[in-house]
Description:
Mean pLDDT: 93
CATH superfamily of the largest domain: Bira Bifunctional Protein, Domain 2
Radius of gyration: 28 Å
Bound molecules: adenosine-5'-triphosphate, magnesium ion
Number of domains: 2
Shape: elongated
CATH architecture of the largest domain: 2-Layer Sandwich
Strand order of the largest sheet: 1-5-6-11-10-9-7-8
Strand content: 15-25%
Number of helices: 15
Amino acid sequence: MNDILPEHSHVWQFLEDCAREVFQSAGYCEIRLPLVERTELFSRAIGEVTDIVEKEMYTFEDRNGDSLTLRPEGTAGCVRAGIERGLLHNSQPRLWYSGAMFRHERPQKGRYRQFHQIGVEAYGMPGPDVDAEQILLVRRLWQRLGIRAELRLNSLGTPESRQEYRAALVHYFEQHQSQLDEDSRRRLHTNPMRILDSKNPALRELIEAAPSLPDYLDADSREHFRQLCQLLDDAGVDYVLDPRLVRGLDYYTRTVFEWVTDALGAQDAICSGGRYDGLVTQLGGRPTPAMGFALGMERVVTLIEQQAPDRPPAMLPHVYVVHSGEPARRLAFEVSELLRDQVSGLRLMLNCGEASFKAQFRRADNSGASVALVIGEQEASTRTVQFKPLREHSEQQAMTLDALPDALAALIDR
Ligand code: ATP
Ligand code: MG
C-alpha cells in the first residue's frame, strides 16, 4: 500500500481531470460507492474459483458478525447500487467511478495491495454500439494523456457457447496433463479457461495449440463481434484479435478487451473490461445487458511520467511573500488576501514561521515562485510592497497596493 507523494500527486490529478472530462463529454456521470460490501456480493459476482475470491480478498467480520470485504474491484458494487437504487432501467445510465481497490496479492512492481482504478459502466444497452463507444473513450483518454497502448480484443460468446468451449478445453488439457504446472492442474476442472491466462512460459506452446475460442462462438455473438470490429475499423482504431484473452473474472460475456503496454515490464495491462450481460440477474436484478472497463491508475501514472513530456508541471506558486516584524506581517496578510480575491488563478504562498530575510529568500527560491513580494518595516509604514523577480535579472521595485493586482495578473499563464 503506497503513499502518493506530492511529487507524483499532480500527475494523478492530471489523469483524474482528463478522465472526468472525457467521460462527461460522452454523458457518463460519476457514482461514488462504498469501499466495503458484503463478502457474498463479491463471491457471487466475481466467481468462487477466481484468483480474487480464492486468495486475494481482505475479508473480516464486523461487530455484528457480518462478513464484509474491502472491494477488490468496482463493478460488483456498482451493480449492487444500480439494483438497490433502481438506476438500471430509468435512463439507460452511463456511470463512472474512481477510487481505491484492495487485493491481497504478492506485492511486486505494478501490483499493489491497495491500488486505484477508474472505471466506467453502462447498463441496458445490448451493444455493439456501446462496446465501441467505451473503447473509443479509452483511446481518447490515452490521446489526451499523451500515452500509447495496444488494444487486444476477443469475444467470449454466451455462457452456453462457452460451456462447449470449456468442455473442449478440458478434454485437450486432460490429454496433456503431465505438462501442466500445479496451478493449471488445479484449475483444470474448476476454471479451465484461466489456464489460457497463465503467465508461465513453460506452458506457452501447450496453450498456443489449445482449441481456440472463436471457433466455438455462437452465431449471434459472432455477428455482435463483427459489428463491433466494423465500428472500430471505421473509427481507425488499431487492435489485435487475441483468441487467448479470457480475463480473470467470471462475469464476462461476449466482448472482452485489454489495453497493454510494453513499457512497464511484466505487469503490462493498463486497462481491461468487457460485456457482462448476465451479472445483473445473477445479483438479483432484472435481465440487463451491461458493458464496462477499469484502468489501473498506478500503471497509467507511471506511463504518463515515462511517455508524456507535455504533461502539466507541478503547480508551483507564482508568488512568495516575505516579511519581517509585526506591522509587516499584518500588511503581508492584508496584501495576500487582497491578491487572492482580485487575481484569479494566482498561487500565492505566504511565509509562515519567523525567519531572517535571508532564510525567507531561500524558502522563496525553493518554492519555485517567480516573484517575491517583500515587506519590511519601511514598506509597512508607507503601505507599499517591494516586487522582486526571482528568476530573471531585473531590479526590484516598490509598488502601491493598487498597482499589485495587475502586476501579478501578468505572471499567470506565463
Ligand atoms: P492483472 O492481469 O494485471 O492481474 P487483472 O485482470 O487482475 O490484472 P482487472 O481486475 O481487470 O485486472 O483490473 C483492471 C486494471 O487494474 C488492470 O488492467 C491493472 O492495470 C489494474 N490492476 C489490477 N490489479 C492491480 C494491482 N494489484 N495493483 C495495481 N494495479 C492493478
Ligand atoms: Mg489480477
